[in-house]
Specification:
Strand order of the largest sheet: 19-25-24-21-22
Bound molecules: calcium ion
Strand content: 35-45%
Number of domains: 2
Structural class: mainly beta
Order of helices and strands: EEEEEEEEEEEEEEEEEEEEEEEEEHH
CATH architecture of the largest domain: 6 Propeller
Distance between the termini: 85 Å
Helix content: under 10%
Oligomer: single chain
CATH topology of the largest domain: Neuraminidase
Shape: elongated
Largest sheet: 5 strands, mixed
Number of helices: 2
Amino acid sequence: MSKLDRNGSLVNQWTPTWLTGGSGGLRDLAYDGEYFYGSNTDTKIYCFDVDGNLITSWSAPAAVRSIAYDEDNDAFWINNWEEDLQLVDRSGSMLYTISSPPSLYGSAWEKEYSGTPALWLFTGTSTGGPCQVEKYFDLYTGGNNLGKQHQVSDDFEPTGIAGGLFITNEWSPGNGTLGGIIQMTPTTLFGYELIKEENTPPDAPTITGPDNGDAGTAYLFTFNAVDPDNNDVRYIVDWGDGEIDTTDYSQSGVDISLLKTWTKAGTYTITAKAQDTKGEISPETTKTVTMPRDKAINRPFLNWLHCHPNLFPLLQKILMRLGL
Ligand SMILES: [Ca+2]
Ligand SMILES: [Ca+2]
């Protein structure tokens, strides 16, 4: 391990003699403000200080190449190449998992600049360059890549491949830096300025659809919300009967329609919110829908007819024919 100053001059160097198992040296690293964390693709996370003293280590549920510290959960996002990313706590338990893009080498976590927890990934190794950083959102609900990426190899050597990745606020005080190592000749450290994205929540969505209908029949409801930043939005719809739908993200201000069937007669309040890709949620909009009767048969009227057979003999006959 080599510690360099800001000009690239060597300050300190040590060998992690405490590495067991795995293969080769330490790969990507993570930092929690006190200690470093990393592994040599062993199923183990090593915790050590800046001088190379091993503090502790613990078993991970998978081999560890990429690693990032998740401040919200005091846990670590780990993976090896294209294996699923797993958030692992300090006892080795998996908290969340998301699918990984192929050829992942390094990762870094932040929420300050993206406005929502985000995992930055440095990918592109298996066939040599190009390599890129890409950003993942919705980390605790299955993960979502919104196509946010930057081609790192375009800024350096086209055949450069991915290495470790980190984020720091200390390189340029007041600004974030996304830093990494690109594997090329010579091995090169880079830093990109992270700009805090100002964000406004979407406006309350409109809800368009029928005011009443029959239980058991499907009705179309249309939702539309505008995000002032033109971020994509998704709709979280509580149908008032215990069922909640969350749509995929779509363009701001575009109609999104959902089919809904209430199974029982009653009056229901639909509550809709729009959420932008930064995680900001709009005010709620509600709409009341009345399902006065079941679709099948109006029972009380039939019962009344049965009690008064002489009043409507013809109707009675028809009903009998129908088997009612
Ligand atoms: Ca890292
Ligand atoms: Ca927004």
